[in-house]
Amino acid sequence: MKEKQSKFFGLLKPIDTGDEFKTWLIYLRKEYHSAAHICWAYRVINDQNVVEHSSDAGEPTGSAGLPIANSLKGSGVINVGLAVVRYFGGKKLGKRRLIEIYGNVAKKVIGSSSLKTWIDWCKYRITGPLDCYGDLSTGLIKLGGKIILDNSIDHLSLQARIPRSKINELIILIRNTTQGQGELELTE
Question: Domains, the chain, ranges and CATH?
Answer without folding.
Answer: 2-111 (3.30.230.30), 121-186 (3.30.70.240)
